[in-house]
Write a sequence for this structure.
């Protein structure tokens, strides 16, 4: 409980991101290199999806309860994954730009 404005930042991955179901490699190739370059094994994809969907629902519930005065929701690229550490700058830049937009719209950036 506070009398100060609530600012929320939502960086959840979109739960409607499509699963990568296709893997045209042979069984031997899958056993030798289970993690194809840039792709997760299907079982890992399914586990991540099982995490992402309830996380998004819980996040929506929290936002409804808190009712923040400002919500910063950067446009997270649909192909961005938790393990894409090499794309951190891209995610930070998206968050920074959206924060500036939201703060400017609320005349706080001055």
């Amino acid at each position: 409980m506070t009398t100060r404005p609530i600012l929320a930042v939502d960086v959840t991955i979109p739960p409607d991101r499509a699963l990568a179901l296709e893997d045209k490699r042979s069984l031997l190739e899958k056993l030798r290199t289970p993690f194809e370059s840039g792709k997760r094994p299907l079982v890992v994809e399914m586990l991540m999806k099982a995490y992402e969907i309830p996380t998004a629902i819980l996040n929506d519930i929290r936002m409804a309860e808190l009712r923040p005065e400002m919500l910063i929701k950067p446009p997270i690229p649909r192909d961005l994954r938790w393990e894409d550490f090499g794309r951190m700058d891209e995610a930070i830049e998206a968050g920074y730009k959206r924060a500036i937009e939201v703060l400017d719209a609320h005349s706080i950036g001055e």
